[in-house]
Amino acid sequence: MTIEAQAPPKASANSDGAPVQNETSAPVDGQVADTQTSMVLEARGVNVYYSDFKAIEDCNLSIVRNQITALIGPSGCGKSTMLRAFNRMNDLVPTCHLDGQILYHGQDIYSPKVDPVAIRRRIGMVFQKPNPFPKSIYDNVVWGAKVNGYKGDLNELAERSLRQAVLWDEVKDLLDTSGLSLSGGQQQRLCIARTLAVKPDVILMDEPCSALDPLATLRIEELMQDLKGEYTIVIVTHNMQQAARASDFTAFFNMGESRQGYLVEYGRTDDLFTNPKNSMTEDYITGRFG
Amino acid sequence: MNETSARPSSPADEVFDDNVAWRHTRGGRWLLIFQLATITCILALSALTFNIVNSAFGLVAMQNEVDPDSLAVDGVDLEDLEKDALIEVLRDNVRAGLFRALDSRGPLNDRSRDELLVVILEDVVKPRAAATYPLVDSLLARAAIESEVAEKFPTAELEFRSWITPRFVTGSQSGIAEITGVRTAILGSIWTILITILVAFPLGVGAALYLEEYADHDRLFNRFIQTNINNLAGVPSIIYGMLGLAIFVRALEPLTSGAMFQSAVAAANVSANGRTVLSAGLTLALLILPLIIINSQEAVRAVPSSLRQAGLGLGATKWQTIWSLVLPGAMPGIMTGAILAVSRAIGETAPIVVIGASTVIFQDPTGPFSKFTTLPIQIYQWTSRPQPEFRNIAAAAIIVLLVLLLSLNASAVLLRNRFTVRY
Amino acid sequence: MTVQSEVGRGGGLSSSHDLPLDLRKRRHLFETLVEGGMFASGIISILTTFGIVYVLGTQALLFFQSSGVTLAQFFGGIEWQPRIGKFGVWPLINSTLMVTTIGMLVALPMGLCVAIYLSEYASPKMRNILKPVLEVLAGIPTIVYGYFALTFMTPLLRLIFGDSVVQIYNTASAGIVIGILIIPLVASMSEDSLHAVPDGLRQAAFGLGATRLETALRIVFPAALSGISAAVIVAMSRAIGETMIVAIAAGAGPNFTFNPFQSAETMTGHIVRISGGDLSYDSLDYNSLFAIGLLLFVITFTLNIISGRIIARFREVYD
Predict the structure, then answer these.
(1) Which tens digits make up the pLDDT trace of B170-226?
(2) Could you tell me where the beta strands, DSSP code E, fall in B45-156?
């Protein structure tokens, strides 16, 4: 049996009813009132476990369309786990299971009827370390589109994706060379181009700049701003400045007593950084721990 | 501290024996032992090589029962005669009964010129090595050998002979050491190995992919498969031979003998029993399956998981990810492992003896249902014969086998070096 | 592939912004088939094991059901003469053990010395020379070693000890050459486990003033002992199951003797000689081979399992 074939059974209390707005029930809640209508992803009472270890506890978080949402927090607080829960990449860890709901345009992506493959095409992912395939630049970009049965013009798609990723001018004469021959920053933009080529709805980025130098980091951040007109972006970052600079919304995670991660505070980035409601958030963003 | 001052330098030294010099001497002696052991290994390899070369070349005292020159027809040498003329020569020089027997074993008219020449050499000329000498003696004590031959075999001709010749490699099998070739055995080996590869490679890679990519290792059953594969790799090859004998040769005889298929290929060369190329190939496939699985698993494991994640993250299915990302990355490693496993199979003797490769085979195998012999089997047979000249051709056949294996291994190394993907 | 079904409707990869959304699970028939095929490939290995046990077991059972054959005689007798109804397996076991012992006497010290030299002393350059030598030694077919035993080792032994003492076929020659055959196995497996010993241990020993030898023998070697013992057991199993060397050099005909210079047939040698001749199916001779084969399988399989256990435990220690 494949590890991704079966979603874990749901245990959440509100899992079988119509969407229930229960912002008032929890002091820390991921609902942002003024953007209800344009929510793309919505986590409801999500718990994530690795075997018996609870990595995420009761997370409620909604992701707003065409905005950049940053997940921040100290190491081990579960922010990457949460990010991977959004496109079911956690299915690849055999011991990992989840309860609660994650709604994507209103559909629970952990429903047994949902195909994780279909999810991942729409919710793409850029990884911490650039991981181009050991193939040519061109093949790197079109590979995903090909396996997903793209029927349009692949050359045009490759050019468009590379332009969107602001990589075209640098590689247009090198399309046949290996993707591994590029610099780290270029490789990461190649990975972004590769993700764009399957025309996703949401792009999840897992510390995409942690392996890059400051200049390359800046370019990725600019790129994110370009892309948010068309895509919804969720980014995990270890770098508070980056979250403050580049994101519209910020979710701060922390670790509880038994090392389980939970969402402390979520709001517009400006508000959260200038006027944190929770003292832990304040301590973290002012650099007192983490 | 004061390392430079004279000893005893510190009060603490007094409670220790001053034994450093002796300890170093002991260390040196042991190092010598370690080095000697290592050198002995190299010596063993050298002795092995020397021993084979020493037998494969050397002086031979040859005696012909009939001088081939006397068989020339109208001044044309025997070697250059046409097929019809060769049949005539044969008719003139052997007893009529033998001629008929030869004809009924395989119509002379249907045989090739080469085969006819071999028949004439075997049954008319009958060259015999009266005495053979190893290479070292031949080079160092030629005079002594010459006088010995002149004394003992006055009619014999002393010649320096390489037992391995192009003719030995391409010639067909014969019961006589001096004129036999190993083509039949080489073809037998090739046919067997082809079947082995066709069966073992896909099964081995498939099992490796299952264990590495699909199987949940927390499940007892999958761990059992893994342990079982590791243990199978250590089962003596002769046990596989017995399995092959009971299953492929006997139980599946209708299949392995080709009786099930009344195709043209099978009908031409159907043997009465299951001791065929197919049985041997399947047996060897089971034998090397664990090796291929274990090697392929390592190669698959070496492909970084970030590639799989990237593929799946783009919405590829599991198989799409494996087929176009994992397998290309793992292929050099898989191929290298497979080649090494195949060279093991080529050299295997015991299981094929047990499933009963016929050794008295003069016809080349033509398909999976042919009777056959293989190179190692011939080496075994020839080594077991008491006559010294069979030792010589066994050595020559060993050289053929080793050259085959060395080139396979070299190609494995090349593959590993040239196509390994770096991430 | 099945994913393409979604494309048919949209014409081209439908942009994800266009709802309605179809995330339904597709029937990945092809994927299921592939996975099934791979699972089946994995099952083959289990079938092989069961096949071996079944074949050896049933035929051996037939043997023990034959008239005049008893388990007590099989495991108690010291004469193996099926023609005259003597079925004591000890001559075969005895010579197998002799050959194995001689082989281990050669391979153990040699292999361990080579392993220690490679792991603790040799420069990278030396390793680059020596490792291929070991690989070549390990890659030579056993039939070639058999030839070597008969045409080199036996004459050498006869030269040293005299023709009257050393028979043409003898267990000493076969045993020594089996030893040479398994040196690479002992050496490379032991070297792996020596190599796996953390460098910190060596540095600690050097830091206390130990010489290289003392570090190697008293610190590294004991730390690698479980891996080395696994190597020794695997090598032993290999020596017991080795066939062609004994078939060629140890002699034909069971002989209960402790003299290594006499000819004596081992279990494997006997199986190969009898099955290589004209053998009629379901005869007593035929079935007796499977009884011997079963014994051989049980011995080697047990040794392999023991060594596998040791390796598994030893991995846990270092990971």
Answers:
(1) 887 877 777 788 888 999 999 999 999 999 999 999 999 999 998 887 788 888 898
(2) 57-64, 127-132
Q: What is the mean pLDDT of residues A265-288?
A: 89
Q: How far apart are alpha carbons C246 and B350 in whole angstroms?
A: 11
DSSP string, B232-278: HTTS-HHHHHHHHIIIIIIITHHHHTSTT---HHHHHH--SSS-SHH
| Nearest residue, CB atoms, C11 vs list A147, A151, A198 | A151
Tokens linked to C139: 């890659």
Pick the residue from chain A with its C-alpha nearest to B318.
A117
Return the beta strands (E) in A137-248 as ranges: 202-206, 232-236
- Could you tell me whether strands A123-126 and B157-162 are parallel, antiparallel, or unpaired per DSSP bridges? unpaired
Locate B113 and state its tokens: 């010129």
Q: Is A153 on the interface with C (CB under 8 A)?
A: no
| C205 compared with A272, residue with greater pLDDT | A272
Q: Write out the two tokens for A9.
A: 């059974």
A68-72 vs B157-162, strand pairing mode: unpaired
Using the beta-carbon criterion (under 8 Å), do A117 and B214 form an inter-chain contact?
Answer: no
**Residue C15, min C-alpha distance to chain A (Å):** 6
Beta-bridge partner residues of A53: A50
Q: C27: helix, coil or strand?
A: coil
Q: Which residues fall within 8 angstroms of residue C143, CB to CB, at 6 or more apart?
A: B347, B349, B376, B379, B380, B383, B398, C244, C248
Cβ of A129 within 8 Å of Cβ of B306? The answer is yes
What residues in B contact C293, CB-CB < 8 Å?
238-239, 242
pLDDT tens digits, residue range B382-395?
998 888 888 999 99
In angstroms, the CA B232 to CA B292 distance is: 12
Q: Is A4 helix (H, G, I), strand (E, B) or coil?
A: coil
Closest-CA residue to C115 (of C131, C137, C99) = C131
B13-62 pLDDT, tens digit per residue, is 677 777 888 888 888 999 999 999 999 999 999 999 999 999 999 888 88
Measured in degrees and rounded to the nearest 5, phi and psi for residue B133 equal: -130, 140
* Separation in Å, CA of C315 to nearest CA in chain A: 22
Q: How far apart are the first and last CA of chain A?
A: 40
Q: C116 to each of B41, B235, C121, C314, how far by Cα in Å?
A: 14, 28, 7, 19
Determine phi and psi for A109, rounding to 5 degrees.
-75, -10
Q: Please state, in angstroms and rounded to a whole number, the distance separating the CA atoms of residues B52 and C303.
A: 34
CB B192 within 8 A of CB B279: no
pLDDT of residue B394: 93
Cα separation, B84 vs B79, in Å, equals 13
In eight-state DSSP terms, residue B4 is T
Q: Which residues of C touch B209 (CB under 8 A)?
A: 38
Per-residue pLDDT at C295 exceeds 90: yes
Check residue A136 and report its DSSP letter. Answer: B
- What pTM does this model have? 0.82
More confident residue, B126 or B338: B338
The two tokens of residue B30 are 């042991």
Q: What's the rounded Cα separation, in Å, for the pair A191 and A131?
A: 7
Strands, E, within A113-272: which ranges? 123-126, 202-206, 232-236, 249-255, 261-268
Q: What is the pLDDT of residue A26?
A: 37
Q: Is A149 near chain C, with CB under 8 Å?
A: yes
What is the percentage of chain C residues whose pLDDT exceeds 90?
44
Residue B386: asked if its preceding bond is cis (omega within 30°), the reply is: no
> CA torsion angle for A135, A138, A140, A143 (degrees, to 10)?
-110
Q: Which residues of C touch B285 (CB under 8 A)?
A: none
- Classify residue B122 as exposed, middle or buried by CB count within 10 Å of its CB (0-12, 13-18, 19+): middle
